[in-house]
Amino acid sequence: MSPLELIVLLLWIALWTVLGGVLGKGKGRTWTGIVLGCFLTFIGVIIIAVLEPTDEERRRRAALSNPALASPEDSYGAAQAVRTARGQV
Q1: Contacts of 35 (CB under 8 A, 6+ apart)
Q2: CB neighbours of 12 closer than 8 A, spacing ≥ 6?
Q3: Which of 41, 52, 70, 77 shows a CA-CA span of 20 to 30 A to 14?
């Protein structure tokens, strides 16, 4: 394998790893996305794209869209996140 082929291969793997990590982060599964993207490339990215978000990520999204839906144990954190997202801090 020539050095150019090796560089292209590493860039290919890096591309899918980063893409998997970015998609995974949006679903609360960053490391899952990184691992799947690295080892399975585009198939791994497809897998992470169809996975459901974690329960924690669902609660975070609900709290950002409607602070009244936040659970009592994280109401301060959710309210702070909403203020930050709206630029009211």
Answers
A1: 20, 44
A2: 41
A3: 52
